[in-house]
Write a structure and sequence with these properties.
The protein has 292 residues and is mostly helical. It contains 12 helices and no strands. It starts with a helix and ends with a helix.
């Protein structure tokens, strides 16, 4: 085999390798995003059955917005919006509290050494590594014990509801917030804070004027992550919810037992659009902070 033949064979192998990599990337993206694209397309399906395409329509969006009655759907529009309202309430409150607590923990772990530091750092990863069903069951057992203790001491009967769902979501969201914010704090140049202290600012003023503006993109990204995780959660919500505390994932799960109409696809598409807007806002904020 001469040198030219070897060169051609080598070029052919490289070409096949590059083609194989592009095919692999294309299949990977198709696996991730093709189901989402199908969901968006079938949200405009005129048929009440997702498996059958019978034409383009906006009736499902109009029924969700209350413009027309949902005559062609077995799905209660009021039930969908009630479940979505519960999900938004839980996600907003839990992400806000988790962001505040997670940011404080991130600053404490990155800046200070204190008794129990290693233990706290280890416990921080538990909600991320243990199975979600284990976390849900443990939260249910813990809350049941607390409810019985309160009833025995005060005679007040407590039950599962939106507050318990919020507590459950805060529990697993704090870990994600702490890790994201801590990474941002670790990249912060401590000399900037030291310069502010040398110029006469106290620690609170340094945090307000220097630290917080510099780590704000990380805090905002962490809050979006916590919001998304809460909005999408099913297992923890299933074990910690009660009567009148049905979130959107639980509502969709209940509808799957009967049928999933394009109205579910429509509201999922709207949620996807909102998520994209939040993501673009986060990227814009991060880019602006990087330029500054």
């Amino acid at each position: 085999m001469n040198r030219s033949t070897v060169t051609r064979l080598d070029l052919l192998i490289r070409s096949l390798g590059k083609t194989g990599l592009w095919v692999n990337v294309a299949l990977g993206f198709a696996f991730l995003y093709l189901p989402i694209a199908i969901l968006v397309v079938y949200s405009f399906n005129a048929s009440r059955f997702n498996a059958v395409w019978s034409g383009f329509t906006l009736d499902w969006y109009r029924s969700l917005l209350g413009s027309i009655p949902a005559q062609t759907a077995d799905l209660s529009t009021t039930g969908v919006w009630s479940a979505l309202y519960n999900s938004l309430i839980v996600a907003t409150i839990s992400s806000a509290i988790a962001t505040i607590l997670g940011t404080a923990i991130a600053l404490a772990l990155e800046r200070y050494k204190f008794p129990g530091y290693q233990l706290l750092e280890s416990l921080l990863f538990l909600p991320m590594v243990i199975p979600e069903i284990t976390l849900g069951i443990s939260l249910l057992v813990f809350m049941t014990l607390i409810f019985r203790l309160v009833e025995n001491l005060t005679g007040m009967r407590l039950s599962l509801g939106l507050p318990t769902v919020i507590i459950g979501h805060i529990t697993f969201s704090i870990s994600f917030v702490t890790i994201v914010v801590r990474a941002r704090v670790a990249d912060l140049d401590p000399r900037l804070e030291e310069a502010a202290l040398d110029l006469g600012a106290n620690e609170w003023r340094v945090f307000q004027r220097v630290t917080f503006p510099l780590i704000w993109p990380g805090i905002f990204s962490a809050s979006l992550l916590a919001f998304t995780l809460s909005l999408d959660d099913f297992v923890v919500s299933f074990f910690t919810s009660g009567v009148g505390a049905t979130t959107l994932p639980l509502f969709v799960y209940g509808m799957i037992k009967l049928s999933v109409t394009p109205a579910i696809n429509a509201i999922s598409t709207l949620m996807l659009l909102i998520s994209l807007i939040l993501l673009l806002s986060s990227l814009k904020l991060g880019g602006t902070a990087g330029l500054e």
